[in-house]
Amino acid sequence: MGERKLRKTDVAIGWLEGVGKGVATMFDFTKVSGNGKTEEKKATMLPDAISPTMNVRRTARDIMDGAKHVTIKRDKLEDIVKKEGMKVKLTEWNEGGIHYLSPTSPEKTALYVLVLDCMNFCFWPSHNSLLQYHHLSTSLKTLAEASDGEDEEEESFRFHPKKLAEIEESFFTEELDPLLPPGVTMPSKKERVHLLRELGSSLLYRHGGKAMNMIEKSENSADKLVDIIVRDLPGFRDEAIDLDGRRRFFYKRAQIAVADLWAALGRVGMVDFKDIGSLTTFADYRVPQVLRHEGGLEYSKELAKVVDKMTVLPAGCRMELEIRAATIVAVDEMARKAGVKAVEMDWWIWQAGERMIEKGEGGKGQILNHHRVRTVYY
Ligand SMILES: Nc1nc2c(c(CN[C@H]3C=C[C@H](O)[C@@H]3O)cn2[C@@H]2O[C@H](COP(=O)(O)O)[C@@H](O)[C@H]2O)c(=O)[nH]1
């Protein structure tokens, strides 16, 4: 990072080393515990009171202290980690080539990831949408590749900040929707247009028109990059005020963006977040769905009924906050037991969930339904 410019040979070497090996071989996966690591974290993270990842953990612990609807079954968490066939084998972020990685330009890769995570919410099927994550990541990849010229500065790149700042709803109807499978459309288009415009404008006016400038300001700290993202991109501010007036922080999309940047750019030596272990799991609906199904989370009768019947919960309600908080605490505990970072444990659980839902959801012998909340945050 820093002032160093990426050369094509660097990319080739980084890429060759990474191909087919999985994320685990590309990064320093030293255990989260241990004195050296603790000091390193202190050196890079923000002070406790303003650290976004600390705020997320504080939120999760606080909510779980008075939880009424969700219980963490600690002995079961241990079983899940140990379970045959579910051992933590770190997942390849780009398995199946579902993401765009520019062969020459970290800037274009970073823009792609930020666009992806701007829209990385509300996938669950409703009467008019059957959108899945890989539909989004691969259709954006197609658009990126189609406009990917030689020149790093090239303004013709579809996700150049100037283009993002002026995006219209026609981007979805004319460019993106046609790349989705028949009958699948992108929900909440108006909201997504606004989020993309916000991203383009913020990069132009706050970061000299470059995603890499924003990333470099983090000084290789995942925690600081989450902070920059939630400060400069309001659409990523996944916060709530609970019924008692307390602030609650989750930062799902901001944290997943940082993790995705780590996976996409770390492989070519462009980022090296020393405190990547500070990220929490990305509290959305797939991870708690898997944990509940496996017995690691137990829902009250009332909540179980709501979730099983696919009743939509209001955003920010107590039940939703408890599910998200329990997910964060449970994944931290599983990661600790397995000696990996929360982000790695998240990817492993998420990918296990994706395999489980292939067999259907909510029926006999199938994974239990996930909770439903209409939100731009996950
Ligand atoms: N907690 C967590 N949630 C994740 C992801 C990802 C993808 N991350 C990439 C990075 C590493 C992985 O290997 C993936 O290649 C998507 N999602 C969420 O799932 C939902 C879509 O699901 P479905 O409807 O089934 O396609 C939607 O809310 C989306 O935001 C993750 O990693 N963790």
UniProtKB/TrEMBL annotation:
<comment type="function">
    <text>Catalyzes the hydrolysis of queuosine 5'-phosphate, releasing the nucleobase queuine (q). Is required for salvage of queuine from exogenous queuosine (Q) that is imported and then converted to queuosine 5'-phosphate intracellularly.</text>
</comment>
<dbReference type="GO" id="GO:0006400">
    <property type="term" value="P:tRNA modification"/>
</dbReference>
<dbReference type="InterPro" id="IPR019438">
    <property type="entry name" value="Q_salvage"/>
</dbReference>
<protein>
    <recommendedName>
        <fullName>Queuosine 5'-phosphate N-glycosylase/hydrolase</fullName>
        <ecNumber>3.2.2.-</ecNumber>
    </recommendedName>
</protein>
<dbReference type="GO" id="GO:0016787">
    <property type="term" value="F:hydrolase activity"/>
</dbReference>
<dbReference type="Pfam" id="PF10343">
    <property type="entry name" value="Q_salvage"/>
</dbReference>
<comment type="similarity">
    <text>Belongs to the QNG1 protein family.</text>
</comment>
<keyword id="KW-0378">Hydrolase</keyword>
